[in-house]
Design goal:
The protein is about 35% helix and about 20% strand. With about 375 residues, the protein is α/β, with parallel strands linked by helices. α9 links the parallel β11 and β12.
């Protein structure tokens, strides 16, 4: 019998080596650095790739849901992989109990007999989306009590828990047989209950050295360092967008690349939010990195990475004209658009180009893989 190699179909139980906070007490952005061992996995990655982590739900949430439904935590139920487990273990490790979609709500409406849910499902799409946003299974069980004839009947309406992708924050040449992540812990309060991002709080709160997490490598061929180490690179990564750029600067150092490295980083406060400060200070101190940092809340007027790009536009244009590759990582909805606008502005101002010519310049950069984005 041959064993399936570790990967998407057979995630590797990666031992946790360390978990540490890299933002300080009182930071508005709680960020952790977590290191996993890949020793014995046979899995390889390249700087720019992502790691998929399959989270476990908060056991307290599973307990509350089981209690609300009046089921036994020890009842045996099938798992999505075709095995059996106790209801408690299945709800913690196998099933999604934090996301409610239309298909699930339809099944819940049938189990609860709720006319209100029936009307919602038959009505306005926007009203339905508003209702679904931020609700989890415990909310449904509390607000619209339902009865299931067995624990298996309940898990039968659930979807399996899905992996979450995180940009890898390490170079395999700097950390053989290891993979590091830089993760923002998501926390919020809704309907008078404290909640958190399933995977981010799993790593920040519940994983400790010696524990294992199920992981596999997700290849990202569209986010790669230039093959020529003499090519300069410009990296724009505020917040946890710094993650793949740590992999980049480690890889460039390990390979002896001679090209210049310029990082634009941003976060709220210098005192609490300077991620990888020691590493960055060492790189800038030895002349291996040019660092431009925007501390958005350290002064009355907010300053972001795109503002620094425009301020340093003259030099940025020189780097672009010298063949620099331009990388962006982070929030797609706002930051990446603002950075793209700033890039066009720099090219127009310092390249003395019309908006149309600047757009053509950027299009050419993309075509020649000199402009790459890892946005989400």
């Amino acid at each position: 019998m041959t064993t399936e190699p570790y990967g998407k179909k057979n995630p590797f139980p990666a031992p946790v080596l360390s978990v540490k906070h890299i933002t300080g007490e009182g930071s508005p952005k709680e960020t952790i650095h977590i290191e996993y061992s890949l020793d014995g996995s046979g899995m390889n990655y390249i700087a720019g790739d992502a790691l998929a982590v399959i989270p476990a739900n908060d056991p307290a949430l599973a307990d509350a849901l089981i209690d609300k439904l009046g089921l036994s935590p020890d009842s045996q139920v099938p798992t999505p992989e075709g095995e059996t487990a106790s209801l408690k273990d299945a709800l913690v490790h196998c099933y999604d109990i934090t996301n409610v979609n239309k298909a699930l709500l339809t099944k819940w409406a049938a189990a609860s007999g709720s006319q209100e849910l029936d009307a919602l499902l038959a009505g306005d799409k926007d009203a339905l989306n508003d209702f679904l946003w931020g609700r989890d299974m415990l909310d449904l069980a509390t607000e619209y009590p339902a009865s299931f004839k067995s624990a298996e009947a309940f898990t039968g309406i659930l979807k399996k828990i899905m992996p979450r992708l995180y940009s890898i924050a390490s170079s395999p040449n700097a950390h053989p047989e290891q993979v590091h992540l830089c993760v923002g812990a998501v926390r919020y309060t809704a309907r008078d209950r404290k909640r958190g991002g399933v995977c981010s709080t799993y790593m920040a709160d519940r994983l400790q050295p010696g524990h294992t997490a199920r992981v596999f490598v997700h290849t990202n061929k569209n986010f790669r360092l230039p093959e020529d180490g003499d090519t300069p690179i410009i990296m724009v990564g505020p917040g946890t967008g710094i993650a793949p750029f740590r992999a980049f600067w480690e890889e460039r150092a390990a390979s002896g690349a001679k090209g210049g490295n310029w990082l634009f980083f941003g976060n709220p406060y210098r005192a609490t939010d300077f991620c990888y400060e020691d590493e960055l200070n060492q790189l800038t101190g030895t002349g291996k990195l040019k660092l431009s940092v925007a501390w958005s809340r350290d002064q009355e007027k907010k300053v972001y990475v795109q503002h620094l790009m425009v301020q340093e536009g003259e030099e940025l244009w020189k780097w672009l004209e010298a063949g620099a590759c331009f990388y962006v990582c982070g929030d797609a909805s706002r930051m990446a658009k603002d950075v793209d606008n700033a890039l066009h502005e720099v090219i127009q101002t310092w390249g003395h180009k019309t908006p149309e010519e600047a757009a053509a310049y950027v299009a050419d950069m993309k075509q020649h893989r000199r402009y790459q984005r890892d946005v989400y």
